[in-house]
Design a protein that fits this description.
The chain is an alpha+beta fold. The protein has ten helices and ten strands.
């Protein structure tokens, strides 16, 4: 175990241990501000790591290996001799946002920042060399170039640690989640608004009240987003619940359906699975 005096002599390690204590898994960056390369035993993935690259730390290598997946909150690993060597050579510190339950919206320039100030809710902000990192509570799939000057860094990605930032951390908005979906549902993938007139003599449908309907859709999106297992079944049951409440009055729009589809695709469902689940739910209810 590295002695405290050794830790004091390596500022990068001190910062890394503080991050780890806060539940944020760090890793060192070498020259070029990139992760250290794989060790000889794992070079070119000869260890067969790729099927396991789903969470931080799948590799048991003694040195920081496998890029973002090396990030860890284990102080014994961070201060081990092999990692100490890396910390001494490190030019910067990075962290795995998804491993901390966070998402970083990386804004590369002034134009991207101006867009974020209009399109996204204010949250914790960290200045970068050219722009800003906007940090949200909640993990999601990572994706680069979601729009000009904007990258999303969360699961299976790393972001440079540039300080604690300022502002209150807020929940990840659906707007950001939607940006990581590679292909938004098309007209055939997301059924159009369901037009089923209310029964004769009915009063104005209460589902058309924006607050009531929006709250219902938001709860459905949250249910899908928070699914930890049986995602496909959760998506189907959620679609069924939405349609049973809102499917007979014509109040659902393409925008509502797209929000549900985007939430499901963010959890790994394919457009075809979304369409099948929606169609099956409609058939079950006789819509």
């Amino acid at each position: 175990m590295t002695q405290p005096t050794d830790i004091r002599r390596v500022p990068a390690l001190r910062t890394a241990l503080a991050l780890a204590e806060a539940g944020v898994p760090p890793l060192p960056l070498r020259a070029g501000k990139v992760p250290f390369g794989n060790c000889p035993s794992c070079k070119d993935s000869s260890c067969g790591d790729r099927p396991n690259m789903k969470a931080a730390g799948p590799c048991r290598c003694p040195a920081p290996c496998h890029g973002w997946a090396a990030a860890t909150t284990d102080p014994a690993v961070l201060s081990s001799p092999a990692w100490m060597t890396a910390w001494r050579r490190a030019v910067a510190i990075a962290y795995h946002p998804g491993g901390a339950g966070l998402t970083v919206v990386d804004l590369d320039d002034a134009e991207a920042i101006a867009w974020a100030r209009i399109a996204l809710p204010a949250t914790r902000t960290v200045p970068t060399t050219r722009g800003e990192h906007w940090i949200y509570r909640g993990a999601m799939a990572s994706r680069n170039a979601v729009r000009p000057g904007v990258d999303i860094k969360s699961s299976m990605a790393y972001a440079r640690y540039l300080g604690p930032g300022t502002g209150r951390l807020v929940d990840l908005p659906d707007t950001v989640r939607a940006m990581a979906v590679k292909k938004l549902p098309s007209a055939r993938q997301a059924p159009p608004a369901i037009i089923v007139p209310a029964q004769a003599g009915d009063a104005e449908c209460r589902h058309r009240t924006p607050a009531y309907l929006d709250r219902g859709i938001a709860m459905a999106v949250q249910r899908i987003t928070e699914a930890r297992s049986a995602v496909h079944a959760t998506v189907y049951r959620t679609f069924l619940a939405v349609l049973s409440t809102h499917g007979r009055c014509g109040c659902l729009t393409d925008a509502h359906v797209t929000r549900l589809f985007v939430a499901a695709q963010t959890k790994g469902e394919s457009p075809r699975h979304c369409t099948d689940a929606w169609t099956n739910a409609r058939a079950t209810l006789g819509l």
